[in-house]
Amino acid sequence: MGFRKKNKSPPVLSHEFVIQNHADMVSCLAMIILLGLMFEVTAKFAIMFITVQYNVTQVLDEKSEPVNLYQYGPKDVATVFFYLLIAVILHALIQEYILDKINRRLHLSKTKHSKFNESGQLAAFYLFSFIWGCSILTAEEFATNPTFLWEGYPHTSMVFQVKFFYICQIAYWLHALPELYFQKVRKEDIPRQLYYICLYVVHISGAYILNLHRLGLVLLVPHYLVELLFHASRLFYFSDENKQKGFTLWALLFVIARLLTLTLSVLTFGFGLPRTENHGFSLAEGNFNVLTIRMTCLAAICLTQAWMMWKFINFQLKKWREHSQNQASKKKTVSPKSKPHKRETTKGGAANGVVKSEDKMSPRARKAKAS
């Protein structure tokens, strides 16, 4: 892990050396790009990495002032790469100065330690993205007019906040791929994390390239809220296993978010876009409003939601089984064990279940007494 002090340094360029010092290496690379701004020869290349490209000035009305909008293009790859480096650095800082300190106090097992780190990183990202997305949506007309999702398509122009939001989103989820190596993620956890990382990259990049950034932003905000609640609940659960109320609220909001996603997707691809004036396929104009692309996008969203619901149902069934087993084990330990009562009956027997002292004498003693 970067920023850590080790007594013994591993061999240079070995796997352990790269893992321990990857944040320092990435920081040096980011500093080199920033230093490029100081020289006129390299400044134009450094700007391509740091600032958002494809600025377009438009005049909406004759009386209004010009508005600076942005489009996308190939140079965005350089911008995504730079903010991918920033994401790696921030990841290491959160891990080193927040999560590792909490882990030392909790004394978690290796399995819980890995899940705690994953939830800690994702909770911080989801919280930041949710607040940022809400601030963007408050300036839009979706609250009063949901038809803005498809009206005026293709939406080739974006305000700065929207474009920078998508650049950072793509950069973050791409940075999660090398982090699987840097964080020494367990082999059994890699497939699960690869699934959702690739799904995020494909869906967010698809909304960005197909000029569906309005729909993508509206769908991401409630989804991030649900995921934030899940990972925050898991963090509280690792600190105290009795704190499980957050999972109940998460389960309710999860189902609502899936229904909301399906509803808005069907409205946009099934009813909204087919009724717009601009139909056809044109890369130059950024128009992808054809039946094949619409149905492909809708099918991808529906399949993803179905997969998420399947994972959700399996997760709930697993938790229910564990809860049932815990309840059964508690009942066995709490309930007292019934002990059989032994009664000794003799010929001169006890009355009302009480054995007299004379009845307790052995046959030889009674014979001696009688003689």
UniProtKB/TrEMBL annotation:
Q: Which residues form a coiled coil?
A: none
Spans annotated as Disordered: 324-371
Q: Report the residue ranges that make up the TLC domain in this protein.
A: 114-323
Ranges of compositional bias, category Basic residues:
329-344
- Highest taxon above the source species: Eukaryota
Query: Which GO cellular component terms, listed alphabetically, does the Swiss-Prot or TrEMBL entry include?
Result: endoplasmic reticulum membrane
Q: Which family, according to UniProt?
A: Belongs to the TRAM family.
Keywords, in A-Z order:
Membrane, Protein transport, Translocation, Transmembrane, Transmembrane helix, Transport
The record lists the organism as: Poecilia latipinna (sailfin molly)
InterPro entries hit by this protein = TLC-dom, Translocation_assoc_membrane
State the protein's name. Translocating chain-associated membrane protein
